[in-house]
Design goal:
CATH architecture of the largest domain: 3-Layer(aba) Sandwich
Number of strands: 19
Structural class: alpha/beta
Radius of gyration: 23 Å
CATH superfamily of the largest domain: Methylthiotransferase, N-terminal domain
CATH topology of the largest domain: Rossmann fold
Function: Catalyzes the methylthiolation of N6-(dimethylallyl)adenosine (i(6)A), leading to the formation of 2-methylthio-N6-(dimethylallyl)adenosine (ms(2)i(6)A) at position 37 in tRNAs that read codons beginning with uridine.
Number of domains: 4
EC number: 2.8.4.3
Strand order of the largest sheet: 2-1-3-4-5-6
Protein name: tRNA-2-methylthio-N(6)-dimethylallyladenosine synthase
GO cellular component, one term: cytosol
Pfam families: Radical_SAM (PF04055), TRAM (PF01938), UPF0004 (PF00919)
CATH class of the largest domain: Alpha Beta
Oligomer: single chain
């Protein structure tokens, strides 16, 4: 029997990269690769990179320096190890990566990782392999289906890519240059993917895309379907109890998506809707093509159909030319919307984007101060949102055993971690939990259904362990 080769993938950045990493493993499985958590025994190491934040490429080169040492040590021990750089930094930097780091064997962009087996063969014969063009064929049509055992091992929640790329050209963003223009997958293939996942124990699906609510994949009627219509169809698949999607653009929220939140119990009342700034002047400079008032009206459209809906968002502070008044407008919008959580970042120029050439830069000191103030406000809103769950009974989809014996962790509709003492047989079920307390960002509670409580017996001569937060 041939000894399996081992692949280690380190992913940076977005949910799409997490999904892509899994699909790389699926692509390499027919070549005899199995995944390993250790770099030291890997035959292939892939850095699956992200180019959104500042100094992304420098972080990659720093990691490559460490990997070169591991690769050299493997060679001294008579073992061949290959290194690949994938993802958006690979797309942006191309052959420059190999020029700067001799240890790299393969450079592959995010639209071409389905060619990894061929690139490995080319690297073996030619010494190096690079592919950063946007291929004509649909990579998803070429990816092998994950095996049932692999799906089950990945857990009860899964990402499914339905859309890639973006046509918005926000002045700060590299996505159109690294992921390409908007492309939506055919509805039938998405349904097949979700059906396969459901058949193997997946209960929650998150549809992902750089601009997911711009989805316009061809349906079985030959017409483009909206994201809302797709959600209606996926909700009919037996076994799928929760549907989510990310990331959305405010300009692409249509009536069908609003109605899906109104009509479909499986669609979770939690929407990630990035706004980036509360200042109309800065939004125009960012080329967002919406105003703060437009954004607030979109939020209200959701709230009219689901009173329990909550929102998260993305914010950039210190965009070129941002004044104190502009930043105050951002704080005002945050107070107006009241978020369950949000991500906030200091502006970082990305090479090749229009904003990188803007001259009215904000000092690091001012950016640091503004970021701290914004995060303090967002954290206070998130804390209040979480605290409001205490004393309530909420539905939790249980995912896995937590760190402490007897403790099972799941997530609420709003992605809050919730911990209970229970038997592992509740994993994969949505059960009501009465929330007793809050520890940092985790809810602590007890199963509300006496039948499930009775089915769990604490081991003899032990006391319940202290609850931990997180996973």
């Amino acid at each position: 029997m041939t000894t399996p080769r081992k692949v280690h993938i380190k992913s940076y950045g977005c949910q799409m990269n997490v999904y892509d990493a899994q699909r790389m493993v699926d692509t390499l499985a027919p070549e005899g690769f199995v995944e390993t958590v250790s770099v030291d025994d890997a035959d292939l190491v892939i850095l699956n990179t992200c180019h959104i934040r500042e100094k992304a490429s420098e972080k990659v080169y720093s990691e490559l320096g460490r990997l070169r040492t591991v690769k050299d040590e493997a060679a001294r021990n008579g073992r061949e190890m290959r290194i690949a750089v994938a993802g958006c930094v690979a797309q942006a930097e191309g052959s420059e990566i190999i020029r700067r780091e001799r240890a790299v064997d393969i450079v592959v962009g995010p639209q071409s990782y389905h060619h990894l087996p061929q690139l490995l063969a080319k690297a073996k014969t030619d010494g190096r392999a690079i592919e950063t063009e946007f291929p004509v064929e649909d990579k998803f049509a070429s990816l092998p289906d994950p095996k049932p055992a692999v799906i089950r091992a990945r857990g009860i929640s899964s990402f499914v890519t339905v859309q890639e790329g973006c046509d918005k050209f926000c002045t700060f963003c590299v996505v159109p240059y690294t992921r390409g223009m908007e492309m939506s997958r055919p509805v039938a293939r998405i349904i097949d993917d979700v059906q396969r996942l459901a058949d193997n124990g997946v209960r929650e699906i998150t549809l992902i895309g750089q601009n997911v609510n711009a989805f316009h994949g061809d349906g079985d009627d030959g017409k483009p379907w909206s994201l809302g219509r797709l959600l209606y169809r996926l909700a009919d698949i037996p076994g799928i109890v929760r549907l989510r999607y990310s990331t959305s653009h405010p300009r692409d929220v249509d009536d069908a998506l609003i109605e899906a939140h109104r009509d479909i119990p499986a669609v979770m009342p939690f929407v990630h809707l990035p706004v980036q700034s509360g200042s109309d002047r800065i939004l125009e400079a960012m080329n967002r093509k919406h105003t703060a008032a437009d954004y607030a009206r979109t939020v209200e459209r959701f709230r009219k159909v689901r009173e329990d809906i909550a929102f998260s968002s993305d914010f950039i502070v210190g965009f070129p030319g941002e004044t104190a008044e502009d930043f105050s407008a951002t704080l005002a919008l945050v107070r107006q919307i009241s978020y369950a959580g949000a991500y906030s970042f200091k502006y970082s120029p990305r090479p090749g984007t229009p904003a990188a050439d803007m001259q009215e830069t904000v000092t690091t000191t001012v950016m640091d101060e503004r970021l701290a103030r914004l995060q303090e406000l967002i954290d206070s809103q998130q804390a209040a949102f979480n605290a409001a769950a205490i004393g309530k009974t909420v539905d939790v989809l249980f995912e896995r055993a937590a760190r402490n014996p007897g403790q099972i962790v799941g997530r609420t509709a709003y992605l809050q971690p919730a911990h209970v003492m229970a038997s592992p047989d509740i994993i994969g079920q949505v059960l009501p939990v009465t929330i007793d307390s809050l520890e940092r960002y985790s809810l602590i509670g007890a199963l509300a259904d006496p039948a499930h409580v009775a089915s769990f017996s604490q081991p003899a001569n032990t006391s319940p362990p202290a609850m931990t937060t997180g996973a």
